[in-house]
Amino acid sequence: xxxxxxxxxxxxxxxxxxxxxxxxxxxxxxxxxxxxxxxxxxxxxxxxxxxxxxxxxxxxxxxxxxxxxxxxxxxxxxxxxxxxxxxxxxxxxxxxxxxxxxxxxxxxxxxxxxxxxxxxxxxxxxxxxxxxxxxxxxxxxxxxxxxxxxxxxxxxxxxxxxxxxxxxxxxxxxxxxxxxxxxxxxxxxxxxxxxxxxxxxxxxxx
Length: 206
What we know:
The chain has 206 residues and is mainly alpha-helical. It has helices at 10-34, 37-44, 48-54, 58-78, 86-103, 105-116, 123-146, 155-171, 173-180, 186-203. It folds into two domains: 10-56, Arc Repressor Mutant, subunit A (Orthogonal Bundle), CATH 1.10.10; 65-203, Tetracycline Repressor, domain 2 (Orthogonal Bundle). The longest helix has 25 residues, at 10-34. The model has no long low-confidence stretch (mean pLDDT 91). This is TetR/AcrR family transcriptional regulator. Residues 36-55 bind DNA.
């Protein structure tokens, strides 16, 4: 197997990216347990021995995809700015999460599959960096509530609700398209408008 810490040529970097893209397709479709190296190699258009030159096994590929995913997934929450307008910041967070549902559906399903299995590979990250980031943003939400900028609600469950409603449009996109009877980008625009109305009706400090 290629030493992952050694300097890589452009061709080697491109081959690793090809394998990761193929693996993302396979893992998103079949989950970790249902996926095989043969499926990933076939999707990448390379031989299994060639794949094993770059990654030591299915676990290594999956681990790298999850590491990338977690970093990307946390970016919208990191951007919640305590110095910004409370409603504008929450609105922007909802919109960014919907954009991720639109642009990264495979990554969302990869994450959902890992969680449904009990998070065996990212449990430490969930209980560590993710929890620390959520605690940090909960402090911001509580400050806005104390200042009367938004209604006093449970800030953790507010974040959970945003996660659940926005990620639905990635994990259950087939169902959404089937029920709506259309497959256009307008469904995300409509979802954004509805979720804004839904959340801010509940967050209105009155």
